[in-house]
Write a structure and sequence with these properties.
Elements lengths: L1 H15 L29 E14 L2 E9 L16 E6 L13 E16 L2 E15 L32
Parallel strand pairs: 3-5
Antiparallel strand pairs: 1-2, 1-4, 2-3, 4-5
């Protein structure tokens, strides 16, 4: 009975924080972290990086996404904070619509690290770690729900009636 309960708990915990199927890597495949990319000499390692789209370019041989890197949660979704490891580029075969993959959207990519390529951010020179994508996952935007507050603790119940205040005329 205890073993059955243990198996159930492990399956339940694993089911709560799963990476989308299109972003899963092989079970024995070690992923290159973003911080290690600037120190790695060999190319061709698998990586899963994510962040916020900064710029989209459609080129003749495919598309290029420039992404501000953020760390990923257990599900692979970027956690947008005030700290970033820098920027990186994702090379995608084919056309990507800049209206859908718009700046500000969160994205996670699974692919192969192809090296560091020089570019510019504004007028500043910048070294971009580059990922040739196998899969990209555009995360849905989370809309803030409107906050409704009827802050009167005594008269907010549907069963309570609002008091009638009579002001005598002079």
């Amino acid at each position: 009975m205890n073993r059955l309960m243990l198996v159930f708990i492990v399956l339940f915990i694993n089911g709560c924080a799963t990476v989308p199927s299109d972003l899963r890597s092989g079970p024995d495949e070690a992923l290159l972290s973003f911080s290690e990319a600037s120190t790695v000499i060999t190319h061709g390692q698998a990586a899963r990086w994510g962040g916020e789209i900064a710029h989209v370019s459609n080129l003749q041989q495919g598309s290029q996404l420039e992404v501000v890197q953020f760390s990923l949660n257990a599900s692979g979704r970027p956690l947008k904070t005030d700290k970033s490891g820098g920027r990186f580029r994702i090379l995608v075969p084919g056309f990507i619509d800049p209206a859908i993959y718009a700046p500000g959207r969160l994205i996670t990519a699974l692919g192969t690290f192809t090296g560091i390529k020089q570019g510019k951010v504004g007028e500043q020179d910048y070294a971009f770690p580059t990922l040739e994508s196998e899969q990209i996952h555009l995360w849905p935007e989370i809309k803030d729900t409107p906050v409704h507050c009827d802050c009167d603790p005594f008269f907010s119940s549907p069963f309570m009636m609002r008091p009638i205040i009579v002001v005598p005329a002079k």
